[in-house]
Automatic annotation (TrEMBL):
NCBIfam families: moaB_proteo (TIGR02667), molyb_syn (TIGR00177). GO terms for biological process: Mo-molybdopterin cofactor biosynthetic process. Keywords: Molybdenum cofactor biosynthesis. May be involved in the biosynthesis of molybdopterin. Residues 18-162 form the MoaB/Mog domain. This is Molybdenum cofactor biosynthesis protein B. Coiled coil: none annotated. InterPro entries: MoaB, MoaB/Mog-like_dom_sf, MoaB/Mog_dom, MoaB_proteobac, MoCF_biosynth_CS. It comes from Thioalkalivibrio versutus. Belongs to the MoaB/Mog family. Pfam families: MoCF_biosynth. Pathway: Cofactor biosynthesis; molybdopterin biosynthesis. One of its GO terms (cellular component) is cytosol. Gene3D superfamilies: MoaB/Mog-like domain (3.40.980.10).
Length: 178
């Protein structure tokens, strides 16, 4: 299996997507998971809005996510890392309190697809997704394989306004309705 993005026809409605890697040990030069996400979102026709690496610290993660969620120019955020169950894994806790709505089906579907690839180890993933201030947020494990699975098999289609019967992109104008 390669890290390169699958061939796609560019989306009709390109989104501005930020990528956040959560790691105590990676620098940008070694961030293969972040690289895989950037390559895939750009291959699909979306734009990389910003990319950062933060340490496994709930408040540092939350601060960066909050900044991006408050920025009306950013449509979606992809995080990679910190979704496990060890003491330092806190990305779900950092992100979940920021969400206005949780998309429960994302984590469920991700773990189901991951089971086909890594078996029962998939239960250790706390991947999640939701909406915060009209911005989609996807919290992904730190492995390159997990990022490929999430993007290739779920996120890409849902951020493509041509996916029918429905997709997340078509709902964007209504996310801030009261």
């Amino acid at each position: 299996m390669t890290d390169s993005a699958p061939e796609t026809t560019p989306v009709k409605t390109p989104l501005n997507i930020a990528v956040l890697t959560v790691s105590d040990s990676r620098e940008l030069a070694e961030d293969r998971s972040g690289d895989a996400l950037v390559e895939r979102l750009e291959s699909a026709g979306h734009r990389l809005a910003e990319r950062k690496i933060v340490k496994d610290d709930i408040y540092a993660i939350r601060a960066e996510l909050s900044r991006w969620i408050a920025d009306p120019a950013i449509d979606a955020v992809l995080t990679t890392g910190g979704t496990g169950i060890t003491g330092r894994d806190g990305t779900p806790e950092a992100a979940s309190v920021l969400l206005d709505k949780t998309i429960e089906g994302f984590g469920e579907l991700f773990r189901m697809l991951s089971f086909d690839e890594i078996g029962t180890s998939s239960l250790q993933s706390r991947a999640l997704s939701g909406v915060a201030n009209g911005t989609y947020l996807f919290v992904l494990p730190g492995s390159t394989g997990a990022c490929r699975t999430a993007w290739d098999r779920i996120i890409q289609a849902q951020l493509d306004d041509r996916t029918m019967p429905c997709n997340l992109t078509m709902l964007m104008p209504r996310l801030k309705e009261v």
